[in-house]
Amino acid sequence: MTSRKNAFTSISSAIVAASILAASASPALAQQPAPGNGMAMPGMPMHQGMPMPGMSMPGMPMRQGAPMSNPATDANPSTQAFKAADDKMMQDMNRPMSGDADRDFVAGMLPHHQGAVEMAKVELQYGKNPELRRLARGIVAAQEKEITQMQAWQKKHPARP
What is the pLDDT of residues 128-156, one digit of tens each? Predict the structure, then answer.
């Protein structure tokens, strides 16, 4: 009976040790890019370019390092227009937080909405699909209305020194 008890204790100890080892390695492994696809974690693409301190948006590409490019499409006018709109939006969203949730919400959403408007305008300029062109027109109308609403809120609630 003693040998069975010792064997059970040894197995239990091995399982506990393996669990501790796996748990301590998990955070480090989760931060490592997956081989071959530039992904930090499955389902979370990494957006190349500028860092965005304090901004973590699951599912949203995050810029780090050189901009994503594809030599086959980089010279395309619509690609250049989309990249310009995206780069401006990302730069304008990269700002310090005030600590005021309402103010930070509006300050972050304004460039986000403006970026959506600019990208929709690129679709209207270069896109051919009627369904997507209707969607783009709807985006421009809705986002411009919300931009006006947020700008009015900012005027009514000026930043305090």
Answer: 999 999 999 999 999 999 999 999 999 99
